[in-house]
Amino acid sequence: MNMHQEVYTVQELAELLHIGRNAAYDLVKSGNIRSIRIGKSIRIPRSALEKFLNS
Description:
By secondary structure, this protein is of the alpha+beta class. The chain has helices at about 10-15, 20-30, 45-55; strands spanning about 5-10, 35-40, 40-45. The relative contact order is 0.22.
């Protein structure tokens, strides 16, 4: 996993934030972190992660 990727999976998000996978899904589901759905996959843009970390 690279902090400079353009998009992250929910699992990668959880690892970066040192939280559980369910907590990461909760952040996405609640809209606290913006995500993009591609088919059944959820991806989190780096810009959304940075915005979350800076808020």
